[in-house]
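Support request, please re-run this one:
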Amino acid sequence: MTTARNLVDFLKIAEKLECEDRLTRMSDGRNQSVASHSWNMAMMAIAIRLHLTRAVNLERVLELCVLHDLPEAIAHDVPLHEQTNEIKEQKRIHEQSAIETINTLLQDERIADEFNEYELRQSPESRLVKLLDILDTCVQHLCAMELSYVGTYKDNFYWRAFFSDSFASQFDYEPILRNIYNEIRTRVAARLRQELDIDYTQFIKDNDNEKV
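Re-run finished. Output below.
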């Protein structure tokens, strides 16, 4: 039986999401926390719900938004550019262990079920939440106080991804998401030109060169 002691221990773990930083930065210059990221995703889900072409359970979507990164309260965030195959496997193992720890405290199998649902991305809700996960990074590219830091990782890894056709096409799953991405991309390209004198098309050319 879950006790108040167990619940308090869980809440102490969940608080760590507020302390776990991501690479993305916010409009005040600070790094975005994992908790802030999850909150942004929930706000996006609420904002776009009337524009979705697929029927989804909004309550389920919001739960997945809040819970999808919960294991990082224990396992910590790993930046995308650092995720080799070996590190991805280690990350998977650590996150499963974290879920087991959390489930021991809550005695609620739904937590593990929802995390696994998100990882498998087979339901409409989990597919939508994954795209919101990615889209939030795009929003932070627009909101960040300055953008020079994005290009410091692995030879513009994040800019080359952000401006690639393959990155954009994933948002075709829901037209409203593609429209939002297109608007953000236009504004970010303008920021790069105005603030850093960078022509975004160089990242597209970089992608084309890598295909040769």
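The longest strand covers residues 21-25. The longest helix spans residues 85-106.
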